[in-house]
Specification:
This protein is of the alpha+beta class and about 675 residues long. It has 13 helices and 33 strands. Strand 3 and strand 4 form a beta hairpin. Bound molecules: calcium ion.
Length: about 675
């Protein structure tokens, strides 16, 4: 009996190990063919032509193999050309010679990235493409695989880790090494986690170069890389784990895609890349652009999202309007001090900073004049193209939304790779649809308390405590976008012709390009609609010096020189005609202790309390015992809903009184400091 059992056990074990091997072989074959198909798309006609001039010794005459340059490292061109030989049926037989030359010459750069990522990746791609051809001698292939063993994947983080994992994965495929494949896949998906340092954050924002907002830029590279690897592994035992896929999909759908309006992304999300021409145009992420684009890959990896992602593609490729299937939404990203507000008719997003985060960086000679970008810049989009390629002709101390010194000439940034923010009081409260955000500005000898109150048809912008001893006048810019069509303005009870602008006038409202700007308390406003000139080289030394120009709608408040406790108030109403209706908005307070706005149709109160205080109105009284940002819904009932956050990210709890009842709430801690907590009175 015992013997028999043992026998069947052995048979069972054998059976399982055989099927496992079969599965593993199937998996490898499938991954091979996915990667090969992916790499075959890389045909480059110009480089293909250059690759044909290969010499007898396996080298190209125009490549300096002794170069150690950090960027544009010439020897890498050798590998890129070999790849074109491989993709060329009539030249493929020359590859072994060229590979042998590389192995012997062993070119090295002084930039680790070229040695540890760029070269091994290129070698891996070549060997993957040659795998079925069997034209590379085994000994040559083994030596090249050895040459690929570069970089410490375990120690690397973020995009670098993923890049190293990818060439490790190539190596596993080429050598059929299962253990190597296990660890390559494990390392590749490791960055898909909610981190508290760099990378993806607990609020589903993305940080890189310290605590710096990089939702597109590095965040986009992360998305493309991870979906690419995931697409290679679909249907195998190496497929991306469900919980990781959920994180990746959430970042793509709930964060990244919502920052794009029509075809164009928010200008605040590309980091220093804001100074690159065409960067805001995201049409390259659609399936129409490439079968291996971000959204094509995301659909392949998770077909459950196909309908939603196809709708996004239709908006981006402009086969449907920007409003198509778009749902109202509001997010405050407390890890990067960024507000995202979407409505079918518009986007209104705000970039701020605090002492917990880092200002928009300048580096590699890019973004030379963007030093005021995080000082409350507002990205207001209807069609999406309002700011597309306007950057070289912007006046950079009048970025939309910011309060700043008005210099005669744009100031160049002198600190590189980001500068730590200063204010402690930056934050935002949201219920997922509405929201309130605040920014304590303290930069370049200008201070202000800036707040934004977000509703459906309007955003209320308040500023107070504007102080500066600087010799320049201080301005708050309402907008600086492409001029489009007529401009209307209303001042002291009459319509004025504003097509040619105006200077320092008390204005009630301005209307331009389907957006109304209402000034409930007036204020000294200036408008220009003139042609502005500049060049990409002015803002990015790597780009063209050619002059670019265009007409710009630029509207701003003048707070004058030496302002003391100055303030401003304006209401932005996107998506209205020139005969728009007034908003049911009451500005209750705009002082250094409190900024408060009530919306009488939504029965909603939004308050920034800079200290403990109260709002007492006809029908209700709200009192708080701590500073906070408070949003109250159904304020006209006995059961209002509270949403509250702590912009200092220091507090543990708060007590809020509504009329005669009190609620004590605990603020989220740890990685969720600054997040909103909610409560309903019953
Ligand atoms: Ca200026």
């Amino acid at each position: 009996m015992d013997k028999l059992w043992r026998k069947s056990h052995v048979v069972l074990v054998l059976f399982f190990s055989v099927t496992n091997t079969v599965h593993a072989q199937d998996d490898f074959a499938r991954i091979d063919s996915n990667i090969t198909a992916y790499l075959k798309r890389d045909v480059d006609t110009a480089m293909k032509k250059q690759s044909l001039s290969l010499k007898e010794d396996g080298s190209w005459a125009d490549i300096d193999y002794s170069s150690t340059a950090e960027t544009n490292w010439a020897p890498l061109m050798h590998l890129n050309r070999i790849k074109q030989l491989v993709l060329n049926n009539s030249a493929r037989n020359k590859t072994s010679n060229a590979l042998r030359f590389w192995l012997n010459a062993n070119p090295t750069s002084s930039n680790w990235f070229q040695n540890e990522i760029a070269s091994p990746t290129a070698i891996g791609e070549i060997l993957m493409l040659l795998k079925q051809e069997k034209i590379v001698p085994i000994s040559l292939q083994d030596s090249l695989i050895n040459r690929m063993k570069r970089g410490n994947v375990e120690k690397a983080i973020g995009a670098n880790k993923l890049d190293m994992a990818i060439h490790m994965l190539y190596r596993a495929c080429i050598s059929g090494n299962k253990n190597l494949m296990d660890s390559a896949v494990n390392q590749a998906f490791m960055p898909i986690t909610l981190s508290n340092t760099e990378g993806l954050q607990s609020d589903f924002s993305y940080r890189q170069h310290g605590p710096q907002l990089q939702i597109s830029s590095y965040g986009e590279v992360f998305l493309i890389g991870e979906y690419k690897v995931a697409s290679w592994l679909v249907g195998t035992s190496y497929a991306i784990p469900k919980e990781k896929l959920k994180i990746l999909d959430t970042y793509l759908i709930n964060t990244y895609l919502r920052t794009i309006r029509g075809r164009y992304i928010d200008f605040n999300l590309e980091g220093r890349g804001i100074a690159r021409n065409n960067i805001l145009d995201k049409s390259s992420i659609t399936t129409a652009a490439s079968a291996y684009s971000l959204l094509a890959l995301a659909k392949q990896v998770n077909p459950n999202n196909s309908v939603m992602l196809t709708e996004a593609e239709q908006r981006i490729s402009q086969t449907q309007p920007p409003s198509y299937q778009l749902k109202p939404g509001h997010s405050y990203f407390y890890k990067v001090d960024y507000t995202l507000h979407n409505r079918p008719g518009y986007s209104f997003n705000v970039r701020t900073v605090s002492k917990r985060t880092i200002r928009t960086e300048t580096g590699n000679r890019e973004n030379l004049t963007g030093k005021f970008l995080p000082d409350g810049s507002t990205n207001i989009q209807r069609s999406g193209s309002e700011y597309y390629n306007i950057m070289p002709i912007w006046e950079w101390d009048k970025i939309p939304g910011i309060t700043s010194r008005d210099y005669a000439v744009d100031q160049k940034t002198t600190l590189f790779w980001g500068e730590r923010g200063v204010g402690a009081f930056s934050g935002g409260t949201t219920d997922g649809v509405y929201g309130t955000s605040v920014y304590e500005l303290n930069y370049n000898e200008v201070t202000a308390k800036k707040a934004w109150f977000f509703f459906d048809n309007e955003v209320v912008c308040l500023g107070t405590g504007i102080n500066s001893f600087a010799k320049e006048a201080i301005t708050t810019t309402v907008n600086q976008a492409w001029q489009k069509g007529k401009v209307k303005a209303f001042a002291t009870d009459q319509l004025i012709n504003a097509d040619k602008g105006f200077t320092a006038r008390d204005i009630n409202w301005v209307w331009h390009d389907s957006i109304a700007y209402v000034f409930p308390n007036g204020g000294q406003l200036s408008l220009t609609t003139d042609e502005q000139k500049g060049s990409w080289a002015n803002i990015n030394a790597n780009r063209s010096k050619n002059e670019v120009k265009g007409k710009v709608f630029k509207l701003w408040f003048n707070h004058g020189v030496d302002p003391v406790n100055q303030s401003y108030a304006y209401i932005v109403k996107p998506g209205v005609g020139e005969n728009f209706k007034p908003s049911p908005i009451k500005i209750i307070a705009n002082t250094s202790v409190m900024q408060a706005v009530e919306h009488s149709e939504l029965h909603m109160l939004q308050v920034v309390f800079y200290e403990a205080g109260s709002v007492i109105q006809n029908g209700y009284a709200i009192k708080v015992n701590q500073p906070c940002v408070l949003l109250v819904k159904y304020i006209n009932t006995n059961n209002p809903v509270l949403h509250v956050s702590d912009p200092t990210q220091k507090l543990t709890d708060i007590t809020i009184n509504f009329n005669t009842v009190a609620a004590s709430l605990t603020f989220p801690q740890g990685d969720h400091k600054g997040a909103t907590v909610s409560f309903q009175f019953n």
